[in-house]
Amino acid sequence: MDNHPNRSARLAPALYKTCEALLWGVGLLLLGYSIFSVTGRSYAADRDVTQFLASAQSHRQPDTTTLTVAQTDNTTELLKAGPTASEPMALPDELDTSLWSKTRIEQYQQVKDDGDAAIAVLQIDKLNISAPVYVGANDHNLNRGISWLNKTAPLNGTGNAALAGHRDSFFRGLKDVAVGDKIKVTTLEGPREYTVSHLQIVDPSHVEVLAPTKHTQITLITCYPFYFVGSAPQRFIVTATEDSLAQLH
């Protein structure tokens, strides 16, 4: 008499249980990786902002020679700048990536911490934006924070300082910005506060937004539309004027 069918019948439940255990194991590993990605991806920027703000608080006599850059009005592209340089010092509260695109999150996770240190921190509490600021709008800097265009006014000086960021990462929250919103930029010399005064959508060739000004302001630049698939055709510009008694007279 052939007992193979009975043996197969006895083995089937064990095989199913083994497969089920393997599938559960794979599922738990994927879940663990997902949790690590969500919590770990913000560590670098969080650390940079925290370290920078601590440095700014304890700083007394900053060397600003590298931040004093001559202004120019011959910039040819809104999201490009000349050679990069920054103060050799390290640099958020918490980094919110809930609005970021999957691609930007992956690029942020892969960015190497081997570039120049941050020169400032930009915060817009209403929009939950907190980002380190680096010198020069290159891919490396734009993947790890936002970039100060180093042919515009220095962030600790007077004039029009321009900051660029990706529309699907650090500057995604600008889709909800409104005139009157407050922006804070902290350098080693301390914080400066600005009020959003103007919003506009322009073509990339509209470089007049980078023109020098007699008053102190910051100009935030990102691509537009925010959820456009592919290379966005326009630029979203946020102009914010410094809050000070001098500005009110």
Descriptive report:
The chain contains four helices and eight strands, in the order H-H-H-E-E-H-E-E-E-E-E-E. The protein is α+β, with helices and mostly antiparallel strands and 249 residues long. It has a single domain, classed as Sortase, Chain: A (Beta Barrel), CATH 2.40.260. An eight-stranded mixed barrel has the order 1-2-3-4-7-8-6-5. Helix 4 links the parallel strand 2 and strand 3. The protein is elongated.
Secondary structure blueprint with pairings:
Elements: H1 4-40, H2 43-58, H3 102-110, E1 120-124, E2 129-135, H4 139-144, E3 146-148, E4 160-164, E5 182-187, E6 190-202, E7 217-224, E8 234-242
Strand content: 15-25%
Please, how many helices?
Answer: 4
Strand order of the main beta sheet, please?
1-2-3-4-7-8-6-5
Enumerate the spans where pLDDT stays under 50 for 5 or more consecutive residues. 35-42, 59-76, 79-91, 245-249
Kindly state the percentage of residues in helix.
Answer: 25-40%
Biggest pleated-sheet summary: 8 strands, mixed, barrel
Write down how many β-strands occur, each being a DSSP E stretch of 2 or more residues. Answer: 8
Q: Roughly how many Å is the radius of gyration? A: 24 Å
Report the span from N to C terminus.
Answer: 106 Å
Decide which structural class fits the backbone: alpha+beta
CATH class: Mainly Beta
CATH topology: Sortase, Chain: A
Mass-distribution shape: elongated
CATH evolutionary superfamily: Sortase
Query: What is the mean predicted local confidence, pLDDT?
Result: 74
Order of helices and strands: HHHEEHEEEEEE
- Whole-number count of domains: 1
CATH architecture descriptor: Beta Barrel
